[in-house]
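Per reviewer request, we include the raw input and output of the structure prediction for the construct analysed in the revised manuscript.
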Amino acid sequence: MILVEKDFWSERGTDDTSSEELGTPKPSVLFADMASSGCWKCLSRPSTSQLIQANHATLRLPVTAAAATAGFSTSAAVYKNPLGLKPKGPGAFSQNQARGGKTLKIKKKPPPVRTGKPPAEGERKALRKRIVLSNTNALEVEGLEDLGLQNVGSEALVAKVVGLSGSTVDSLRASEAFKITQGWNLFRRPAILIRNEGVICVKALEEAEAEKKTERLVIDGGRVSGKSLMLLHAMASAFVKGWIVLNIADTQELVNACTEYSPMPDTTPTLFSQNIYTAAWLGRIGKANEAILDKLQLSQTHSLPIPLQENISLLRLCELGSREIEHSWPIFQAFWKEITAADRPPVLMSVDGLQWIMKDSLYRNADFDLIHAHDLAIVNHFVQYLSGEKSLPNGGAVIAATSRSHAPISRSTDLAILQQLNRQAEEEVTERDPFEKKYDERADKALQKVQVMWLNGLSKIEARALMEYWAQSGVLRQRVDEKTVAEKWALAGNGVVGELERGALRMRI
């Protein structure tokens, strides 16, 4: 670039010399004149930039990409698109067009269309709770003795496996006594191991029947220690003896706010009935005790909201209550009066999952406060007999089993069980934690006078009898000797029955 410039500062110098030729004033006056003349000159003359533009001869060259870059660079300047926008317009082209290639475009598959029929109401729950009680591929165990009226309380059956007859199995199935986690589908037909604690439980039932008293018992133990199986043994013995059995298989269904409920009038404190659950419960009671209830007829007069035929059987009454959902609770009260009348069989009430009904439920009242489980009509009916507030006139038992694998933590239940175990062992009673705020007073009151049966692991004799039964059924393909029994017994935590089954039958290395 070539610039041609006149000497601007030389012009200014000539102007200053011409002013001196006019005369030299005094120093102060000269200073003022020079300042004023300089300011006026700055304002009257064009600026320096204007003079440079006017006096410069500029040669403008085209700006190219090479000139815009540094001298040491050999590549063109490429600026990043800050907004990430794609070029638009007729002159824009894509990256694929620039390189002249093709890309593989994989289209996403649309979501699958459900063409099948959706499951009906309750079908998935029925499939989830379906229990298989027989396996035709399993071997038939020869010489297997059935549990009957002659040997139901015999001590000779301790450490032996006995089978269950067809009628007993039907009653237990209707009562929902079998659990899906108990492995019934591995064997030819259901059978149970007679433990020493089982014989003690049956002896307590026989004593309650003979003396017409109410036996109150809580079955507790570690996880998978056989609490539900012990409850099943008690129910099977009651069915064999001809008792009337009322079983609540899962107390969680009573308190998890999944069934309809309504307040009952003229009750203090206010109780809440669950008509749909009560109707289903009456249906199960009728099927489980069909052989007994079909022979018993109405002996009292009841004021029910629906007309009731005289001299009908109690089985027919249960069927009526299962159909009349709106009046199921009054029908259950009439049924209870009938089975507790004079000259009726003893009654066994059993519950699995005690911790669920020893705390607040998920239901709410009109003030949106949580309803305690003892304010539900069915739970209140059971707790009255468990706590000893009421007794069975014809004798019977109230048995509750705890759950350690799927149940909430109930501080009051755990403390009451521990204190009762201390009393039974004649030890010092454990005191309440003064800083614990989660105790339930109503649960404490209900569990004060109950007996507790604590289940430990199986003995080695009982474990060997069980493993021999597994081997005869073709499930355990291993020689059962003293060494094998000791190994499996030790690995199962000193004979915990659930761990023994898992280690011997279900675990494959």
